[in-house]
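User: Second chain of the day. Same drill as before.
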Amino acid sequence: MYPVQRYRGFDGKEQAVFAAKAPSLGWTHYSPVVNTGGSVSSGGSRFSWKNDTLETPFYKIAFNAEGRITSLFDKRQNCETVAPGGVFNSFISAEDVPIYWDAWDIEADWKKRIRQETQLVSTEVAADGPLFFRLRRVYQLAENPAGENSSLIQDMICYADDPRIDFETKVDWHEKWRLLKVEFDTAFDAEKVRCEVQYGHLWRNTHRNLMQDRAKFEICAHKWISLEEEGGGIALLNNCKYGYDVEGGRMRLTLLRSPIAPDPDADRGEQYFTYSLLPFAGHFADANVIRSAYELNSPMTALIGSGKPESAGSSPAEQSFCSVDGNAVIIECVKAPENGAGRELILRLYESLGGKARTTLHFAKELKSAFLTDMLEDNGVSVPVKGCDLSLEFRPFEIKTLKVVF
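Assistant: Same format as last time:
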């Protein structure tokens, strides 16, 4: 039995949520239970909200009058993650008028024209139950010369069984030549920041000592960046925003811009996005940051079907097409081969942590053969298979293209 929690989204529609789990590249069957006599309980809340302070199974969080986080105490590490005098989830906007290319450039002097967005309109608890806590806030953003107000509504979501904190956001954007960022003043004063790129990650300096570092006042990364020191760190995840700036322990994520060329209405109107915080203890490789970022960007899909569990009273039926041992190697892509051959599939895998790795792939069906190919799926080299399994070795950040035949 899985507890169900209900809440209303930004559109006012009620949603019912439960914490579903499924195996790697697979599916799990769940059957709804209709509560006819009140005997089925969703469970009580695992959160405490009082006087602008929220306590979750993982954190103690304090807020100021503007809705910014002034303290995020990690109970697992027994440490504060907000810098002294700093805040988390601080919205700032600034004039953004590039010299040449409106839609492509950001000038370094945007920091000279920062406006703190502190016009908090309302706060309400949108959900409080056994699975998650949603704190909903509405902000009015800077008024543009045309007199149109931009607004932001956001749910901060803390989970009962997941240390990730999500910031689910809707912005009604009507600005011109302005950018909007969110800022986190962390207690991790690191010299470098780990930035995800496709099929791996790289390190960038967080200081401005060198000329080339001063030129990187805005950097790109994919699903996450991570600041770390011995014993732990904190990651900033997102599902569609790829511009960051990091200096010392301060992380900023660029949320929106408003260029007028080549499109005079670029980014105007309603925008939906989610970014997340994930403090962690220990080494990055053991923190599940990469997995959590994939879960944020590629959530599970729910389908209504007529299938039934294999037998009454048993666990829900489930199946995994393929899984890998360990947390270093990731299956990035599963596709049909370019030559259209039947009973063949192409898998693209990569080593994600920057070290040598050996893993075994476990398939749901017995393999006839397998081949390592180039990126064009040519020049196959046979790989030994043993029933449903095969083993591979990877160099740091190595990408492999694997053709399997069933």
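The helical segments are 211-214, 289-297.

User: Great, on to the next one.
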